[in-house]
Amino acid sequence: MKKVLPGLFVLMLLVPAALCAQGTLRVSSLYGPVEWKAVTSASFSPLAASTQTVRIGDELRTGPGGTVMLELPDSSYMVVSENTTLTIQDYWSGNLRSLVNIMAGKVRFYIQRLGGRPNPYRVMTPTALIAVRGTTFDVSMDEAQNAEVRCLEGSVAVEAVGLSDREVILEPGRKTLVRPGEYPMTPVASDVALDTNRVIRMVKKNAPAGNSKDAPSIDVMARDNDRNNRAADPLRAPESRNSDKTDRAKPTLKY
Questions:
Q1: What single-letter DSSP state applies at residue 2?
Q2: Over the stretch 94-141, which tens digit does the pLDDT of each residue have?
Q3: What DSSP state is assigned to residue 231?
Q4: Residue 143 in 3-state DSSP?
Q5: What does the pLDDT read at residue 209?
Q6: How many alpha carbons lie under 13 Å from residue 231 in its C-beta half-sphere?
Q7: Could you please report the per-residue DSSP string of 207-218?
Q8: What is the pLDDT of residues 174-232, one digit of tens each?
Q9: Helix (H) or strand (E) run with residue 135 in it
Q10: Are 100 and 86 spatial neighbours (Cβ–Cβ below 8 Å)?
């Protein structure tokens, strides 16, 4: 009788179970307000404790104080924090399997290793794509669609949606931020605050730059007086531009 290699034997046991369960995530625990909208439903309803699985296209929404844990067939799992909304995706198709699309809130992922390497999963947000290279990481989305990714163990690759020509690699204890339409920020330590506000560098100009048709800058006009910018007019007649009439001629600017 031929011997079956231990690793092959385990794989033979895992594959049928995984194939039967593909397209589903097991609800292993839930606490507090958690709502569920099946792909065939038009509205959310409370997620009952008796609900054992959620499927591709289903949406989950946790309220204040609500959490839910979802488990994959390979025993990887994710903890969905309060005030989070996400959609289950078709994680079994393609080489890089998409798990969920996080629309708002925070999720922590714990990814199992197969053959010494993390399983090839991907997490999506409207702003960022996160390729799993490590085993434990957080993904958070705020109301302004800023995606913050924090690596706790292993490494994580992060890129911006629609800007696939650049990515950043997060090592343990590092994080990055992806703002809508921008590349991921340079990774920083997890305890460093990230500025989610857009910074626009302003350059002050004191005068037009060599072109007489250029408009004067604000600070030039602020220092100028309306009367000084008018032609000399000693007359105080009704037609005088120095009069108080509202229909007087428009002042002529000089530099």
A1: P
A2: 566 788 999 999 999 999 877 777 677 889 999 999 988 778 999 999
A3: -
A4: coil
A5: 55
A6: 7
A7: S-SS-TTSPPPH
A8: 999 999 999 999 999 998 887 766 554 444 545 555 555 555 554 444 444 444 444 44
A9: none
A10: yes
**Does the pLDDT at position 11 exceed 80?**
no
**H helical segments located in the chain:** 6-21, 218-223
Q: How is residue 189 written in tokens?
A: 């330590």
And the tokens for 132?
A: 């799993």
Position 233, amino acid: D
Q: Which residue has the tokens 């033979």?
A: 12
For residues 21 and 24, what is the distance between their CA atoms, to the nearest angstrom? Answer: 6
Evaluate if pTM is beyond 0.85.
Answer: no
- Alpha-carbon distance values, 110 to 47, 66, 87, 119, 132 (Å): 23, 19, 18, 11, 10
Reduced to 3 states (helix: H, G, I; strand: E, B; else coil), residue 101 is: strand
Domain extents for the chain? 23-189, 203-255
Q: Which pLDDT score is estimated for 120? A: 77
Strand 174-178, strand 188-189: pairing: antiparallel
In the numeric block, the tokens 């428009």 are attached to 250
Q: Give the mean model confidence (pLDDT) for residues 37-65.
A: 91
Q: Which two tokens stand for residue 121?
A: 């999963």
Burial label for 10, CB within 10 Å (0-12, 13-18, 19+), is: exposed
Architecture of domain 23-189: Sandwich (2.60)
Which residue, 152, 95, 92, 85, is CA-closest to 125? 85
